[in-house]
Amino acid sequence: MAPRPRELTPDRSARHLFGSEMRRLREQAGMSLESLASVVRYAKSSLARYETADAMIPPDLAERLDAAFGTDGLFVKLYSLARHEIHPDQFRRLMELETQARLIQEYSGQLVPGLVQTEGYARALFEVHHPRATDDEINELVTARMSRQSLLTADPAPDFFAILDEAVLRRSFGGPAVMREQLARLLDLTLTSTSVLQVLPFEHGGHAMAGGSVKLMTLGNGTQVVWEENSVTGTLFEEKHVVTARHRTYDLLRACALSPKEAAKMIESAMEALPT
């Protein structure tokens, strides 16, 4: 007996409405997910996740669905709304995308990226950002962050490239011992078979990515997405022109950053400058 389709919630968001309309029109046309997959050239499993709003909608799917169902731009209009939404589950979606990424490129202007933070650094960071949190609440946050890091040691592991502003090395969290351990972790990542870490020195001056952090992810199927984050929120971009622009900015910044060898020397210098 075939499992009963999951109940949809079209009133929850534009993304959920997109999925609900997709299922309604598919069933109205007497099509299975498998038959629709052959028409729009997407995997059946992917289409199932788009219907239930469990995955972000790819940019070109809307036009393909309009062509398949003859809906005269309905899905294009729904997608134009859905792509601007900031969903409550945005960080869960980010973590899902990270697990699918084969290449992760990051720029961080103030903090060590979460994927390479030590437990002590992460704890100190959470204590600053959540001063009223209980010890148990802080422990939960730290545990969650540490669990995300397993993807860097997965088989196969994604390539991880990072550009850190010099401020990341100089701004201490948790005291000298915690910071020394964190800097040692960064030192180990400067150049390995799966990681490249560079530093953008203060002397470079201003640049287009100053003020926050940017994560560029290339997924296993070749899809590229961008996650931009500030101190309170993050936004996912999938539009090709936005992704292309961020990649260009990142490439220019990488060209101006210190080489891994020079970055290692700066990290060692920051470690030596810490109080004993």
From TrEMBL:
A GO molecular function held by the record: DNA binding
Q: Which residues form a coiled coil?
A: none
Q: Which SMART domains match?
A: HTH_XRE
Q: Which residues form the HTH cro/C1-type domain?
A: 22-76
Q: Which SUPFAM superfamilies match?
A: lambda repressor-like DNA-binding domains
Write one Pfam family the protein is assigned to: HTH_31
Name of protein: Transcriptional regulator
